[in-house]
């Protein structure tokens, strides 16, 4: 039985004061429940200081594909490890669409994360246009294949996947549990065709307008193993309720 895992993606939100209040509320409420918060780079030290010794892990939202060198403004996997990160989000749709990250670059970042011992949370998902033109599975397969071809199928033993339909992110439009389950099952079957053991243990999170009110019905689906939560991860009661729904 796969254990469900919920991760918060704070995106570019927060301040020292706001984070302190949020983490102080999350810590006791999530005692004994595995969860993750992916915070902006400057707040990794704060997350480490506040969360060390708890069951809440922390991570970043991006990393460089390079190990070190003259790459102004970039942050390496080793730097994230220095701050105790366990996870790093790779290939979020906002990185792909707003910052031009290609499938190949995403694969390089995924490998850089794993080479350093971080667990990538690899995001895949189609746009509204792609869904409406019936190419959802082709897009998700292309995004996955870029990573599998570069890093190998066994690499997914040390990764988490997140299916995030772009049209559901920050829009208030959640994929229905059936729509999400259909893509999750497609992903798991595709991976099972290559390696059933990898597919069986792989955590596939759903992301896109998850909130306390819709978490339970999403988490009840057999191939939805948790969530990647944006807006609702900034509200302690919402995030706690989602994590509890997943842990049930
Ligand atoms: P929302 O939960 O705000 O829709 O964001 C989802 C997301 O992009 C998480 O990575």
For this entry, give a set of tags:
globular, single chain, TIM Barrel, 248 residues, 8-stranded parallel beta barrel, alpha/beta, 11 helices, 8 strands, binds 1,3-dihydroxyacetonephosphate
Structure in a nutshell:
The protein is an alpha/beta fold and 248 residues long.
What report would you give on this structure?
The protein has 248 residues and is α/β, with parallel strands linked by helices. The protein has one domain (5-247): TIM Barrel (Alpha-Beta Barrel). It contains 11 helices and 8 strands. It has helices spanning 16-29, 44-51, 77-82, 93-98, 103-116, 128-132, 136-151, 177-194, 196-201, 212-219, 236-247; strands at residues 5-9, 35-38, 56-60, 87-90, 119-124, 160-163, 204-207, 226-229. An 8-stranded parallel β-barrel has the order 1-2-3-4-5-6-7-8, surrounded by 6 helices. Strand 2 (35-38), helix 2 (44-51) and strand 3 (56-60) form a beta-alpha-beta unit. Helix 1 (16-29) runs parallel beside helix 11, helix 5 (103-116) packs across helix 7 and helix 7 (136-151) runs parallel beside helix 8 (177-194). It is globular and about 45 Å long. The chain starts with a strand and ends with a helix. The model has no long low-confidence stretch (mean pLDDT 97). The protein binds 1,3-dihydroxyacetonephosphate (13P). 1,3-dihydroxyacetonephosphate binds next to strand 8.
Topology as a string of helices (H) and strands (E): EHEHEHEHHEHHEHHEHEH
Shape: globular
Q: Give the number of domains.
A: 1
Q: How far is it from the N-terminal to the C-terminal residue, by CA?
A: 13 Å
Side by side, the strands of the main sheet go 1-2-3-4-5-6-7-8
């Amino acid at each position: 039985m796969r254990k469900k895992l919920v991760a918060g993606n704070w995106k570019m939100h927060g301040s020292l004061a706001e984070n302190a209040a949020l983490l102080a509320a999350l810590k006791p409420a999530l005692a004994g429940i595995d969860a993750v918060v992916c915070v902006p780079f400057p707040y990794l030290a704060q997350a480490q200081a506040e969360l060390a010794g708890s069951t809440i892990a922390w991570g970043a939202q991006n990393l460089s594909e390079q190990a070190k060198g003259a790459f102004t403004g970039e942050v390496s996997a080793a730097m994230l490890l220095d701050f105790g990160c366990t996870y790093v989000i790779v290939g979020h749709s906002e990185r792909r669409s707003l910052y031009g990250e290609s499938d190949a670059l995403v694969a390089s970042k995924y490998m850089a994360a794993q080479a350093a011992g971080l667990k990538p949370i690899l995001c895949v998902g189609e746009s509204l246009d792609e869904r409406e033109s019936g190419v959802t599975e082709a897009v998700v397969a292309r995004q996955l294949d870029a990573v599998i071809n570069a890093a190998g199928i066994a690499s997914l033993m040390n990764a988490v996947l997140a299916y995030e339909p772009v049209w559901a992110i920050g829009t208030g439009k959640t994929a229905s549990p059936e729509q999400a389950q259909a893509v999750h099952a497609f992903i798991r079957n595709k991976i099972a065709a290559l390696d059933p053991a990898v597919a069986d243990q792989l955590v596939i999170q759903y992301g896109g307008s998850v909130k306390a009110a819709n978490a339970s019905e999403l988490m009840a689906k057999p191939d939805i193993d948790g969530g990647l939560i944006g807006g609702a991860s900034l509200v302690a009661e919402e995030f706690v309720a989602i994590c509890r729904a997943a842990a049930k």
